[in-house]
């Protein structure tokens, strides 16, 4: 997973670097795009293969228990429901993240491609930090 994340970040950085106007003037656009497509393809392929089992493995496999929530109510905790809840949140975040495409289209039109590519790259890199901070709590 770490290798896949590294390939993705490297691909995005190549895309940004080769879309700067001075790099485009030197003819770096097409080679940069080809390298980016290879790096991102390998990174995303590796990440997609392990992401869903990785997320599900973070939820402990316990028997259903009755607990009190913060409001004092009795609730039943069950792994299957917890996994469903986590994936529901995951897909909502993916959908909310897709709204960035609206901003990138406007940035590309009014500024330039490099800034449009920089925005999702920065957001992606920020999402990696919790995995780095909590690496001792994560189940691999």
From TrEMBL:
Write down the membrane topology: Multi-pass membrane protein
Membrane-spanning parts: 33-55, 89-107, 113-134
One of its GO biological process terms is: oligopeptide transport
**Keywords, in A-Z order:** Membrane, Signal, Transmembrane, Transmembrane helix, Transport
Highest taxon above the source species: Eukaryota
Task: Name any one Pfam family assigned in the record.
Answer: PTR2
Question: Molecular function (GO) terms listed?
Answer: transmembrane transporter activity
Q: Which PROSITE patterns match?
A: PTR2_2
Presence of the UniProt keyword Transmembrane helix in the record: yes
Q: Which Gene3D superfamilies match?
A: MFS general substrate transporter like domains (1.20.1250.20)
Give an example GO cellular component term for this record: membrane
Compartments where found: Membrane
Q: Where is the signal peptide?
A: 1-19
Q: Which SUPFAM superfamilies match?
A: MFS general substrate transporter
Give the similarity note. Answer: Belongs to the major facilitator superfamily. Proton-dependent oligopeptide transporter (POT/PTR) (TC 2.A.17) family.
Q: What is this protein called?
A: Major facilitator superfamily (MFS) profile domain-containing protein
């Amino acid at each position: 997973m770490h290798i896949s994340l590294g390939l993705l970040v490297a691909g995005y950085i190549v895309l940004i670097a080769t879309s700067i106007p001075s790099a485009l003037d030197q003819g770096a656009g097409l080679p940069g795009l080809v390298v980016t497509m290879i790096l991102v393809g390998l990174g995303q392929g590796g990440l997609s293969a392990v992401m869903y089992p990785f997320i599900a493995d973070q939820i402990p496999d316990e028997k259903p228990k009755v607990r009190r929530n913060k409001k004092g109510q009795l609730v039943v905790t069950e792994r299957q429901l917890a996994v469903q809840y986590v994936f529901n949140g995951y897909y909502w975040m993916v959908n909310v993240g897709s709204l960035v495409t609206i901003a990138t289209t406007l940035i590309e039109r009014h500024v330039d491609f490099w800034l449009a590519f920089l925005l999702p790259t920065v957001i992606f890199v920020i999402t990696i930090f919790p995995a780095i901070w909590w690496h001792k709590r994560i189940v691999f």
